[in-house]
Give the backbone structure.
Amino acid sequence: MQVLALNWLILSATGSATAMGAVVMLQALPVLLLGSWGGALADRLPARPFLIGFQALRALLALALLLPGGVLPGNWLIYAVALFSGVISSFEGPVLGRFGSALVPPSALGSALALGSVLSSAGRIGGMALGGVLIGVTGPSALFLINAVSYVAVIVALLAMRPGDMRELSAPSRADGGVVAGFRYLLGQPVILVVLALSFVLGSLGRNYQVSMAAMVAGPLGGSSGSYGLLSTVFAVGAVAGGLLLAGTGRSTLRVLLGTGFVISVLQLLSSLAPNVLGFAALILPIAAGAVIFDTVVSTRIQLDTREEMRGRVLATVGIVSSLSGIVGAPAIGWLCDTLGAREALFTAGAVTTVAAVAGGVALLRLKGRALSWPFLLGRPAEQAA
């Protein structure tokens, strides 16, 4: 709801899409610059007190948006809130990831992360829907207030948890607790590096559908704003379905990672050939489901295949890669749509991600001492963790 209100506020004040892009950039930039230090702190310090503090700070930032505009000249208050939100995210992300893995046994981590993805997607759907109604009745201020109050529930939930029931994760030694030690460890994990590279390529060229959907609707599909709304809803439903499917099976394996990455890449390529909005929507649904499965399996495998005392720093790297894929991918897809056309852009991006999925799969299987074969793809051999 606050994202919706913040975008509306800056767009109403400036009439500039560039200003809106600056707000998004200010939230992403600190993750790139500070994420590694956030990961190092996550590995060394207790998570729950920090998470409670982060929620309190986020509530204060939401309340700050209710202050009169004269507190800071122009739109600097909005920019300041966006920047500080990004700073909090750079530390909160690794801490939350490490904290989550302490709440469930390793065998349930995949299902737990998938359920978290479902709740996140449902929150986005419900928040955007309710926010879209309220903003027309009350203006953006009510959305900021609701967001601020909502953090009280999160803080209460954190306080109600029983620390004695949580798993105690290993902490790094003083010599291994720094940022450099984290990078050194990561460089010695080729499987994780290949997974991160695969995540970056598929995330940048295969996950920025908000841009390509708009270009397809406004261009070759000849749709309207209602068509774009329909596609956005279908995408959200697909995301929830993908999370529920993975949560039910709990199969966060190498085979699922490679298979899903390849399938969603091929479907993206095929979506460029869709004759109409309904045909495009039929392909968007499994793409959204597959994207959630792929991202969740990446997060699960990286957590399970990383030493506990290094987990915060590796998760911080995942956050950095995710931010980079958004910063690089959205403009790249937009440029391809403007230069080649919407269909050609989707086809090109789908072809690149398909090749990347195959190349990444071959590299991962070689690192694991496996061969790319039909029996492996069909699931006949015994399961092997990534």
The mean pLDDT is 82. DSSP finds 15 helices and no strands in the chain. The first helix runs from residue 2 to 14.
